[in-house]
Design a protein that fits this description.
This protein is mostly helical. It is built from ten helices and two strands, in the order H-H-E-H-H-H-E-H-H-H-H-H. Helix 5 (about 60-70) crosses helix 10.
Length: about 200
């Protein structure tokens, strides 16, 4: 699921995105999630503006995120599909869907750009010449920049190393009773356009 759908579910318990999580909680749908995508969910959900709009405490937001992650089936990223989409922030969603062999992809994006998700930090990287040449050749063949290639390689490696431990930790600390209360609460925002329940 797209990060916008997670935020929509947290902010609007009466919306269609929240209904998907209730179905997942009942075992009627399976959610797929990779470590990088889960980390993005958490980074976005804990932002003060989303916490405020949802009417949740910081602790309740963390309960929500932990339960969402614990509900999901872990997906190891075996290969990356970048760049494929017009919106680069959706690449992790596509990678998770492809690697997890998803039957359906939920992208609740509203066309808004999230400035914090598109900001880039830099890190000087020194590679041996032979490795740099190999990276240049591969990235040229893939039609990507060296930066994109290195960033996706790092994300892929972290995902492979962290999958089992990451999801086991979240399952151990998930509080599903509290999650169920959050999902049934009154309040939050009314669902935004496109996230309303069908009539």
């Amino acid at each position: 699921m797209d990060t916008d759908a997670i935020v929509a579910a947290m902010r609007s318990p009466t919306g269609a995105s929240a209904a998907i999580f209730r179905k997942a909680r009942q075992g009627k749908v399976a959610l797929l999630l990779s470590v990088p995508l889960a980390m993005e969910y958490e980074a976005v959900c804990v932002r003060p503006e989303h916490q405020l709009a949802a009417g949740l405490s910081e602790q309740a937001v963390r309960i929500f995120v932990d339960a969402v992650i614990a509900l999901a089936e872990p997906v190891k990223i075996h290969y990356l599909w970048r760049p494929q989409l017009r919106d680069p922030s959706d690449e992790m969603v596509l990678e998770t869907a492809v690697n997890g062999r998803a039957n359906l992809l939920n992208a609740a994006g509203s066309g808004r750009k999230d400035k914090q998700m598109t900001e880039i930090t830099t890190y000087p990287l020194r590679l041996p010449r032979s490795l740099k040449k190999a990276v240049e050749k591969q990235s040229e063949e893939d039609g990507t920049s060296i930066n994109q290639f290195v960033a996706t390689a790092v994300a892929e490696k972290l995902s492979a190393l962290q999958v089992a431990e990451f999801f086991a930790d979240r399952k151990a600390r998930a509080d599903f009773k509290a999650f169920d209360k959050i999902m049934k609460r009154r309040g939050g925002k009314t669902p935004r356009a496109g996230d309303e329940m069908p009539r």
